[in-house]
């Protein structure tokens, strides 16, 4: 088993910036999830999450390293559940209807699929694999 090289300063900076972007996007997605136009729910943040979460995972794999591409997805899930359940002032921010399930499914599932593909490619490049 080979030990991976330590991260360079630039890679660490990219990882911190991508994690910070993930936190900001997760909070915005949560706070704007109950958005309505009149009486019609308009969960546009589901689309934002469906695009940005997999993008953050893929970007981490490219800029930092594939083995650490799980960081944005884990940060996103922790922020969504942490802020959603224990929001500001103890309020429940994660609304309890179909929009919350749609946000979780549309953001976490594509992110996990990109994560699995990146980790699979990284595992295939290890020496000794045939």
Topology of this protein?
Elements: H1 9-31, E1 36-37, E2 40-41, H2 44-63, H3 70-85, H4 98-124
Antiparallel strand pairs: 1-2
Structure report:
This protein is mainly alpha-helical and 130 residues long. The protein is built from four helices and two strands. The protein has helices at 9-31, 44-63, 70-85, 98-124; strands at residues 36-37, 40-41. It has a two-stranded antiparallel sheet. Strand 1 and strand 2 form a beta hairpin. Helix 2 packs antiparallel against helix 3 (70-85). 26% of the residues are buried. The mean pLDDT is 88.
How would you concisely characterize the structure shown here?
The protein is 66% helix and 3% strand.
| Strand count | 2
User: What global shape is seen?
Assistant: elongated
* Strand coverage percent: under 5%
Neighbour order of strands in the largest sheet: 1-2
């Amino acid at each position: 088993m080979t030990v991976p090289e330590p991260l360079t300063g630039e890679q660490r900076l990219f990882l911190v910036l991508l994690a910070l972007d993930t936190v900001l996007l997760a909070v915005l997605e949560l706070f704007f999830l109950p958005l309505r136009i009149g009486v019609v729910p308009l969960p546009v943040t589901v689309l934002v999450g469906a695009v940005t979460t997999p993008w953050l995972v893929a970007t981490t794999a490219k800029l930092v390293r594939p083995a650490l591409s799980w960081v944005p997805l884990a940060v996103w899930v922790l922020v969504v559940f942490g802020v959603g359940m224990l929001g500001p002032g103890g309020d429940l921010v994660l609304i309890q209807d179909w929009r919350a399930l749609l946000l979780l499914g549309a953001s976490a599932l594509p992110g996990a699929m990109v994560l699995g593909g990146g980790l699979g490619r990284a595992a295939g490049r290890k020496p000794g694999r045939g």
